[in-house]
Amino acid sequence: MSQSVVKNSEADAPPPPNPPSGGGLKGHPWLTLLTVAVGVMMVALDGTIVAIANPVIQEKLHAAPAEIQWVTSGYLLALAVFLVTAGKIGDRFGHKATFLVGAVGFAVTSAAIGFAGNIQTVIAFRVLQGLFGALLQPAALGLLRGAFPAERLNMAIGIWGGVIGASTAAGPIVGGLLVEHVNWESVFFINVPVGLIALALGLWILRDVRAEKAAKSFDLPGIALLSVGMFALVFGIIKAPEWGWGDGRTLLFLGGAVVLMVLFALWQGKAREPLVPLGLFRSVPLSAGVLLMALMAFAFFGAIFFVTFYLQNVHGMKPVDAGVHLLPMTGMMIVGSPLAGLAIGKLGPRIPIVAGMLITTVAMYGMSTLDTGSGNGVMSLWFVLMGLGISPVMVGATEVIVGNAPLELSGVAGGLQQAAMQVGGSLGTAVLGALMAAKVGDVLPGNWAEAGLPPVEGAAGEGLKQAAQLGIAPPAPAGTPQQAVDAMAGAVHESFVSGMSLAFAVASVVALAAAALGLLTRRGTTDAGPSVHI
């Protein structure tokens, strides 16, 4: 390899040079944080607000179930495939320009989705929206890495995480209100003014900071291998629940992803200016941080996916009410992220990360004990612990990954952090979903029979099983006694909760493994190196 990309010095990175005199507010660290938070808020809000609109989009645009799935899957797929390359674009051309293009593109594609007249157009622009979202997130971390000295980076990332938590929490509530009182298009139009604010602040506040050692060319073969490999991996994960994990198509995509990733790694060792220099992973803390982020996302996003179905279909809540009931968790993430930044600044990331994952393990196990009659108090307890535990992990792992990378690779490091979270979340949702589906299929016939209901065979039985995996009780024929209606709902809900309990139990084991991995982390130790200000 032509140069070492990681310096194993124990000294904290020095603060970046002061902005030139007369520069006004341009380059101010805390205003830089405000600016990138506005842009990333748009992406975080979009992640949950669209889920609320999907049922209405399906109805209004007459979309098939498979089509409405791709409103979400197309976005996530584009995001995951492009994140590392987007980080490299920021390292090469500057994170300010990359951030501004991402913010404008995200707002424009959001408007285009709102004006779309059919589901195919919606899906196409959701894919483009994912590409622009991928530009935004690593660029935001790169700008923070360049604006803050190492001793303040933890706090900055903590506040940044709090903004993401607040936006995520607001999504279901804002989305529910907009869908109910305006229309589904408004959940996309809301991104337009936010994008314009991010653009205005970016032009006024952001000062591009680039390392003098930043790459001067692109590793096109590496980009192609990584992009196709990531596509095969994430697409295979998304389709596995539908095709089956042992299906030839699933094995083809996942096996192809492994082959492409191996070829990518081999090429990175030979390329003159590689996309992801392998020397980056000589840093044990950085490597541990990437894997930790993937395991955390596997456990958290994979298991929490079922909570909305539990609240809405088992407890009969409306989407807005379900969002309100999740506020104890998201509220703790809003408060806990800045506090985690302070704690990590004083103690280093290791203790807060390990403690956070242990708390998350307890919360996951507690969620596995919920039943159909669990009250708001016990649910809120586990939600509070979940938010409290996840906060230091999100902040700490991000700081470990970005802080242990040199400045000229801060965008790539940000892309790795986001890609690990996307792949981990997708894998968790698919794997835990498959385990849950198998559990529901096993216990549903017994619960159905115990309720004194006649067996359901053939296509109707398969439809009942699929509905039960979402906690949806089948519609009863006209004239069915209320006692029988209640018995059907009870059998379905009991089966759903059994599957959810298994998913959370497995997630708690993964969280415990992540806690052990957290012992390998430490604060960033790389020198920021020479930089130029634009």
Automatic annotation (TrEMBL):
InterPro entries for the chain: EmrB-like, MFS, MFS_dom, MFS_trans_sf
Superkingdom classification of source: Bacteria
PROSITE patterns the UniProt entry points to: MFS (PS50850)
Annotated spans, Disordered: 1-25
Keywords assigned: Antibiotic resistance, Cell membrane, Membrane, Transmembrane, Transmembrane helix, Transport
Regions crossing the membrane: 30-56, 68-86, 98-117, 123-144, 156-175, 187-206, 218-238, 250-267, 288-311, 323-344, 351-368, 380-407, 419-438, 496-520
One annotated GO molecular function: transmembrane transporter activity
Membrane protein topology class: Multi-pass membrane protein
One GO CC term on file: plasma membrane
Pfam families xrefs: MFS_1 (PF07690)
Domain Major facilitator superfamily (MFS) profile: 32-526
PANTHER family: EXPORT PROTEIN, MAJOR FACILITATOR SUPERFAMILY MULTIDRUG TRANSPORTER MFSC
Record-given protein name: DHA2 family efflux MFS transporter permease subunit
